[in-house]
Amino acid sequence: SAVISQKPSRDICQRGTSLTIQCQVDSQVTMMFWYRQQPGQSLTLIATANQGSEATYESGFVIDKFPISRPNLTFSTLTVSNMSPEDSSIYLCSCWGPVETQYFGPGTRLLVL
Amino acid sequence: AQSVSQHNHHVILSEAASLELGCNYSYGGTVNLFWYVQYPGQHLQLLLKYFSGDPLVKGIKGFEAEFIKSKFSFNLRKPSVQWSDTAEYFCAVMGTTSGTYKYIFGTGTRLKVLA
């Protein structure tokens, strides 16, 4: 199994600012992912964080808004840029373990005023 | 389009009642199926999974799920729930699209078990 930590656990931000969320895994993993979980909605995949190359974004998400870094096999960051109240959500980091099981971080709860 | 539907958004049960949470999916090709659970204040974690073989799979804490291919369903069951089963439950499908693995989650079902 993998243990994932995220920082910060929650934040309240002003409109127009940016927030960087950090994700740390306790072991080397090939695949890391970033999800958004909005109230009453399913987990929505934002992007796959690829080590050594650009992230792969899902439809509706762009690099300018959600830049992602993956400098090594245990760490990734997601930045939420130029925030608006619609970005208020829980942001989850995950990785794949054995047999395609996903392990999730505790999430970052973001409120944009 | 690929999708996962969970029909019950909120379920309230008394302890010892039986539980069945519905999950239907739409995905062409071979799929792997999962149920994840998020207990209050905790991370999402795997409850059980189906890849192949016996369509009735057993997970942790007495949960089981049955894959019915003809109905595109993977319903979660427990014969007798406990107060500690209060949590949010997510069904998920993993399949391949253009050679890329993709996970799709349902919207989740909030279960509240009354002591």
C-alpha geometry of chain A? globular
Give the DSSP E fraction of chain B (strand runs of 2 or more residues): over 45%
DSSP E strands of chain A, number: 11
How many angstroms separate the termini of chain A?
Answer: 37 Å
List SSEs of chain B in N-to-C order. Answer: EEEEEEEEEEEE
Can you summarize the main beta sheet of chain B? 6 strands, mixed
Overall geometry of chain B comes to globular
Identify low-pLDDT runs of chain A: none
Helix content of chain A: under 10%
How are helices and strands ordered from N to C of chain A? Answer: EEEEEEEEEEE
Q: What is the straight-line distance between the termini of chain B?
A: 41 Å
Rg from Cα of chain A? 13 Å
Strand content of chain A: over 45%
Number of helices of chain A: 0
Overall pLDDT score of chain A? 92
Q: Give the class of chain A from helix and strand content and strand pairing.
A: mainly beta
Mean pLDDT over the residues of chain B: 91
List the helices and strands and how they pair.
The complex is a heterodimer of chains A (113) and B (115).
Chain A: E1 4-7, E2 10-13, E3 19-25, E4 32-37, E5 43-49, E6 56-57, E7 68-72, E8 75-80, E9 89-96, E10 102-104, E11 108-112
Parallel strand pairs in A: 2-11
Antiparallel strand pairs in A: 1-3, 3-8, 4-5, 4-9, 5-6, 7-8, 9-10, 9-11
Chain B: E1 3-5, E2 10-14, E3 19-21, E4 24-26, E5 31-38, E6 44-50, E7 56-58, E8 64-68, E9 73-78, E10 87-97, E11 100-105, E12 109-114
Parallel strand pairs in B: 2-12
Antiparallel strand pairs in B: 1-4, 3-9, 5-6, 5-10, 7-8, 8-9, 10-11, 10-12
How would you characterize the overall build of this protein?
The complex is a heterodimer of chains A (113) and B (115). Chain A has strands at residues 4-7, 10-13, 19-25, 32-37, 43-49, 56-57, 68-72, 75-80, 89-96, 102-104, 108-112. By secondary structure, chain A is mainly β. In chain A, the strands form two sheets. In chain A, strands 2, 4, 5, 6, 9, 10 and 11 form a seven-stranded mixed β-sheet that branches. Chain B is built from no helices and twelve strands. Chains A and B meet through strand 10 of A and strand 5, strand 6, strand 10 and strand 11 of B.
